[in-house]
Write a structure and sequence with these properties.
The protein has 7 helices and 10 strands. It is of the alpha+beta class and 369 residues long. Helix 4 packs across helix 5 and helix 5 crosses helix 6. The radius of gyration is 68 Å and the shape is rod-shaped. The structure holds guanosine-5'-triphosphate. Keywords: Coiled coil, Membrane, Transmembrane, Transmembrane helix.
Length: 369
């Protein structure tokens, strides 16, 4: 008995209805019939197999493909459902066992402030069974404990450093004060030294070095200003006999008295009284012509005379001085410092020659040699 699409004995495909009527199979790939013959075997009492017939199963391709598609669909749905279930299980497990601890660890590390490590910090993950994230938390806690120790240590060092710095600052300040004091002392000592180096030890007035410096300065200044410069040489009269008669110490005392008298007799504060050497003195007066200089020197002669220091070896019977005065305008053509010195010296010589206790004003033109 056959039903549906079959292949008849001639190999043609026919469709057989339930009532036995036949019709042609509709063309198309899916309508094509397919068949498989199953032999019917019989094993006799001797064990020999006999082929006693066969039965053939027919089907059309669309039935087979439909069945296969159905089965495939079932497998696909099954797989999708299983995958989804597994995925949700995985998500749940991941979130429950990994996601939350990782998030906690991440939040903890993000909120860590390494500048605030004075108080110890640590993180503890929940759960009785320890896994890799607990080990990671342990490692973080260990690192934080080390950082905490280092921070405490660093703070102690920092405090020590601050104290050292403060004591160093205090030391520095006291050193600066001492240096300032020493610098001041040194400056004063220098000033004293300079003053000493420019002062005559016996009389306390300017010495020869100071005289030389002052004379050059005043020469240049007078040249700049176009003003006259006066120079005078003074010599104590008959001083050798005084020394011989009264003694060298008495001679020193006379030199001091004469120096003080000359100093008190100068016309202006800026005028210089210097000990030129031995019993010789010199006066430098800026912006002073010969006449004014001679007047000043006469006042000095009178002042020394007025001291009335007894001098048995002098014709005047007392200590007197002689002076030679010269003045010139350094800006004048031919004027020179050496010429001024020579003129004053020559005038002094003349004062001595003319009888001492007098002032001679150089009248000759002072020309550089
Ligand atoms: N006590 C003392 N005497 C000095 C000093 N310097 C120089 N004399 C002396 O001064 C004297 C100068 O003498 P002289 O140059 O011969 O001249 P004078 O006797 O003053 O005679 P005239 O200058 O011609 O009036 C010398 O005896 C020097 O020893 C000093 O610092 N102290």
């Amino acid at each position: 008995m056959a039903l549906g699409n079959i292949i008849d004995s001639s190999g043609a495909q026919v469709h057989i209805e339930e009532d036995g009527s036949q019709s042609a199979v509709r063309p198309g790939f899916l309508n094509a019939a397919t068949s498989h013959r199953f032999p019917i075997l019989y094993r006799d009492e001797h064990g020999v197999m006999h082929d006693i017939g066969s039965w053939t199963v027919y089907s059309s391709r669309h039935v087979v493909i439909g069945k296969v598609a159905y089965g495939f669909t079932l497998i696909l749905i099954n797989s999708v459902i299983k995958t989804l279930v597994l995925w949700f299980i995985f998500l749940y497990v991941f979130r429950r066992w990994l996601g939350q601890p990782i998030t906690r660890l991440a939040d903890f590390v993000r909120e860590l402030d390494l500048n605030q490590m004075e108080t110890p910090r640590s993180i503890h993950l929940p759960g009785r069974r320890r896994h890799e994230l607990h080990f990671l938390a342990d490692a973080i806690n260990l690192m934080l404990a080390k950082l905490h120790r280092h921070t405490i240590h660093n703070h102690a060092l920092y405090k020590e450093l601050e104290q050292e710095k403060q004591s160093l600052s205090a030391l520095n300040r006291s050193l600066e004060l001492r240096i300032a004091e020493r610098t001041r002392d040194l400056a004063q000592a220098n000033e004293q030294l300079r003053s000493l180096s420019l002062t005559d030890g016996l009389t306390g007035i300017a010495n020869r070095r100071s005289f030389d410096e002052t004379l050059e300065q005043e020469w240049r200044r007078s040249m700049r200003h176009g003003t006259p410069l006066m120079l005078a040489f003074i010599d104590v009269d008959w001083f050798k006999p005084y020394n011989d008669h009264y003694g060298h110490l008495a001679g020193d005392a006379v030199l001091r008295q004469v120096a003080q008298t000359l100093r008190q007799s100068i016309a202006r504060v800026g005028d210089t009284v210097a000990r030129y050497g031995g019993e010789e003195f010199a006066i430098i007066a800026a912006d002073t012509d010969g006449q004014a200089g001679a007047d000043m020197l006469r006042r000095m002669c009178d002042a020394v005379h007025a001291l009335a220091i007894a001098h048995a070896g002098s014709a005047m019977g007392r200590i007197t001085i002689s002076a030679g005065v010269a003045s010139c305008n350094p800006g004048q053509p031919g004027a020179g410092l050496d010429g001024l010195l020579q003129a004053a010296d020559a005038a002094l010589y003349r004062a001595k020659m003319e009888g001492r206790n007098r002032v001679v004003l150089a009248t000759e033109l002072i020309v550089s040699p």
